[in-house]
Amino acid sequence: MSVFVLDASTAAAWLLPEEHSETAEQLIASISGQCPVPGLFWHEARSILVTAERRQRIAAGQALTAMTRLRRLPLEDAGAGQDGSVIELATVQGLSAYDAAYLELAIAPITSVGDPRSKAGGCSAGRESAGPGAVRQ
C-alpha cells in the first residue's frame, strides 16, 4: 500500500492527456482510504485546469469535467495548515509556502480522532508527498 499526500501537479498528470504519467495513474489507483490534501490543493487543481483550457490544451468545458473526476477520489480537505509550522518549514527547507503546506501535511502526526488525517486509511502517518520536488521520509 502506498502512503502519500497527493499534490496538484500529480493530479494534473493524471487528468491532462498531454501530461499523462503511468506513475500518476499508479499513485491514484493506490489510494485505499480517505487521503488528506491541503486546502490549497483544490485551488491549484482548478488553476491548472483553467490554464489548460485557456491554452486550448483541453477542450472548452473540460476543466469542470476534470474537477468532477478529481472530486470522485477519496480526498479530504485537511485545511490550510498551521501558520507557524508552514512558515518555519518554508524558511528552513527553502520552499514556497505552497510546497511547505504539502510538506507540513505529509510529516504532521495524526493528533486526534477529530483530525481529518486520523481517517486517512491508506494515507496515514509516515506519509510521503507525491509530486515534483517531493520530500521523502
Helix content: 40-55%
> Within the largest sheet, what's the order of strands?
1-4
Tell me the total number of β-strands. Answer: 4
What is the number of domains? 1
What order do the helices and strands follow?
A: EHHEHHEHHE
Question: How far do the termini sit from each other?
Answer: 16 Å
Instruction: Please write the CATH class name.
Output: Alpha Beta
Structural class comes to mainly alpha
Q: Nearest-angstrom radius of gyration?
A: 15 Å
Q: Give the low-confidence spans.
A: 111-127, 132-137
Into which percentage range does the β-strand content fall?
Answer: 5-15%
Give the helix tally.
6
Could you please say which CATH topology applies here?
Rossmann fold
Q: Quick one: overall form?
A: globular
Topology overview:
Layout: E1 4-6, H1 8-15, H2 22-29, E2 35-37, H3 40-54, H4 62-71, E3 75-77, H5 83-93, H6 97-107, E4 128-130
Parallel strand pairs: 1-4, 2-3
Helix pairs in contact: 1-2, 1-3, 3-4, 5-6
What does this structure look like?
It is a single chain. The protein has 137 residues and is mainly alpha-helical. It has a single domain (4-128), classed as Rossmann fold. Helix content is 46%, strand content 9%. It contains six helices and four strands, in the order βααβααβααβ. It has helices at 8-15, 22-29, 40-54, 62-71, 83-93, 97-107; strands at residues 4-6, 35-37, 75-77, 128-130. The strands form two sheets. It has a two-stranded parallel ribbon with strand order 1-4. Strands 2-3 form a two-stranded parallel sheet. It is globular and about 40 Å long. The model is unreliable at 111-127 and 132-137 (pLDDT under 50).
